[in-house]
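yo

u said u wanted the structure for the complex thing, so here. seqs first:
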Amino acid sequence: MKTLPVSKAVFGTAVVIFLMAPLFAILPLAFTDSIFLNYPIPGFSFRWFHELFTANAWRWSILNSLVIGCGTTILATVLGTIAALGLRGNSASLFFSFFRTAFLLPMVVPAVVLGVGMQLMFAQYGLANTYVGVIIAHTVIAIPFVVVNVTAALQGIDRRLENAAASLGASPAVVLQQVTLPLAMPGIVSGAVFAFATSLDEVVLTLFVAGPNQRTVARQMFSTIRENISPAIAAAAFLFIVGTVVIAGLVLLAQKKTQRA
Amino acid sequence: MTRQPRLSKRITSFALIAPLALFLAFFFVAPLVTMMKTAVSDPVASIALPTVSAALDGWDREGAPPVEAQQALANDIRNVSNDELFGDLVRRLNSAKSGFRTLMTKTRNAVIEDANLNDLVSVDRRWSDPGFWVAVQDAAGASLTDRNLLAAVDLQRDANGDIIDAPEGTSANRTTLFRTMIMAGIVTLCCIAVGLPFAMVAASTTGWKRQLLLGAVLLPLWTSLLVRTAAWYIILQDNGLINLTLQTLGLTNGPVPLIFNRLGVVIAMTHVLLPFMVLPIFSVLIGIPKNLMPAAASLGAHPIRAFLLVLLPLSLRGVVSGALLVFMSALGYYITPALIGGAKDQMISSVIAYYATGAANWGMAGALGIVLLAATMILYVVYLRLSSEEVRT
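structre next:
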């Protein structure tokens, strides 16, 4: 019977290594002073971070990612939060469950299929190769994350709090502003973070919808891996991974707050 | 009294979801509809030849066409001033019946030279062959076509309109579709092989060990897909970490090819999709009462027998949900095969992207898109059915 726990531990460790190793393998390469993206690292330097913030292609892509990411976050969070408020308390209705399911569909449809359709349609409406077009495309696939997170946060709110505020004379608008939204805020923040992360990592729709002026970091990484692989990739990946850990920490904090409330 | 507020609440709710519903209708549903329409629309001939279709009405499609039809066609051809449109028209007609390329050019030159020329048979004897007129009538009368949809699965229509296989070697769509299914299947099996035992291990531990195991699943899920793909590129390349280790240990002389082949794609995709397998199985497993296995053991079941008869059947629902999620996501995968795979490992998404951005053949991109979309939607509906059953029981 002793062999079972041992094999369990070995298997568990092996899978954890399989899952984590790639992420740790890429981190040190961000600090290489070689022009090749492989081990062993001849010497350490910050030249690739320097490249990231000074080379025109990378600098512009970082700026584009921030502009498009912020636009997507605002649009997706506003639309998704309002819709989640509308879905709330209507779970029994077939009509509203239809919309609940429909709002999650952008997560399911393959990005390439959506990309082809968007490229065709955006060209007709003059949205192709524009920032607005890219922001709209990213918002479509970021929406489900906002709806899911805000819906979950709203479900956790005790209705009696809102009823109490209303019985004390607060108008529905005041209840929403003073009670419901503050209580749902952790969910809204999580949704916004997911929306930003989705936009930051999105490549396929960007390939179809964006022009050369809307090149994002993810798009730039994609073509760098494809055409001329350089350690600038590892530097960008380093920033992504550090950013992910920070964001994950923030979301976990927000969720802890929700549970306590 | 209760009816009034309930109605007004309904109206408020509807007003709240309306902006998002409209947004998605316009920027999510409409693009998909546009894509489907492009796949089946065939407007070239009806735009280029606007009058001949009406003139051929009532023709028996066997004998010589009426004089008015010849007149109408001569006029239509005369009025095509745009060379690009004429080129598209010739290509469209030639795909229905070969010979149109020379016939149309000759006819066009003749009717432009003589503005009163209406007898097409005098220009070329072929215009007395009803076969050419049938092709003209079919092309000019139809604005819809199933040509792209058939070509997406390597089929075409012969001269009689019957559906037949496309000639060998002209198209590889069926091979690509088949390969996509196989790759998605292999990745799903790998995810089950790794994910099921891993979820069981995670569910059987507690405290920091469980946190660590789950964290290892969640962190990659949260990390950028591009970062993970780039990381696998670094590990798998010819002078990457794995080959470096193997050569240092003296296990191989030259590098083992791990990248730009199917093995690399399967490894990277399994890594990317593993969380979608582990999480559903884990959530099913922690719902299973802890005392079931001891109960089976106390009744005399060998641990393996207890596992096979108790734990495995109970976790099967999680496995099925996870497998559907993984298979569905794998079908539409683009980035990982595009960066890690070789030319022979490209899946249907790559072919769609090629038709759309490389070849500018929107009809084919749309038709293959419909195939992929349909497959994904069917799997998603099955997944929804399963998960809603779970809620009910």
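Strands of chain B lie at 155-157, 163-165. Chain B has two domains: 45-143, 173-392.
cya
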